Amino acid sequence: MLFFLLVGMFIVDADIAMQKKTELKILLELSNHHATFAVDPVLKTEGVIDLLENEALERFDDRMYENGGYRREQAMFVPQADSVTTDPIPFSRYYVDFRSWRNDLQLRLQYNGTTLVTERATKGPARPGGGMLQITVVTERGEELQLAPKTMVGPSHVVVAYIDERPFLPILPSHSFPVVSVEELKD
To answer: What global pTM score does this model have?
Structure first.
């Protein structure tokens, strides 16, 4: 009986983790979509779509707070009482500008237990339809997590967050997974 109870708790815990992953993916997508409207109006009149990064990050922060109750402290989103997660979420962002979006790009990020930093950004060959974006997150244990590749269709704002959350029961393993949002700039 105790065995079945433990298995049931493990299944419920895994289901909660998947729900959190889905909700955070949607939250990142909505926030990043809102941020990508922060384009430079002067360059836009010349036909160049370029991101005003400080303004974009402010718009991203506003939407993370409005939709999820997260406030930013440096490179980390701190949850409020009504947020979907209970632990802070480190994130990293990368802007692929109008001169580079056709090139392949490999981003390698390192998570050390508290922060997520871009370790390396390697540009590859150009593709007429847009570059292939490959993201790898290296965990504090050295495990390499490769996210599904994405094709860029224009200048893009890339945001990667790493969720490392305690389970609802201490005997269960923690929930750790990366979430990515890639949004093309809107003109």
So the answer is: 0.88
- 80 in helix, strand or coil? coil
H or E stretch including 112? none
Tell me if 84 sits within 8 A of 185, measured CB to CB.
no
To the nearest whole number, what is the mean pLDDT of the chain?
Answer: 89
Q: Which domain holds residue 153?
A: 1-184
Q: Which residue, among 92, 99, 145, has the nearest Cα to 119 in the 3D structure?
A: 92
Distance of CA 29 to the CA centre of its chain: 8
Residue 172 has pLDDT above 70, yes or no: no
Token digits of residue 50: 């370029």
> How many separate domains does the chain show?
1
> In angstroms, rounded to a whole number, what is the distance separating the alpha carbons of residues 141 and 18?
22
Question: Is the separation of the CB atoms in 160 and 91 below 8 Å?
Answer: yes
DSSP one-letter code for 58: H
Task: At 153, list the tokens.
Answer: 């269709």
**Looking at the predicted structure, is the pLDDT value of residue 171 above 90?**
no
Q: What type of residue is 176?
A: S
3-class SS of residue 5: helix
Helix axes 53-68, 2-35, angle to 10 degrees: 140
CA distances to 51, 84, 157, 159, 167 from 154, in Å: 12, 31, 10, 15, 39
Which residue in this structure is represented by tokens 């998947």?
A: 18
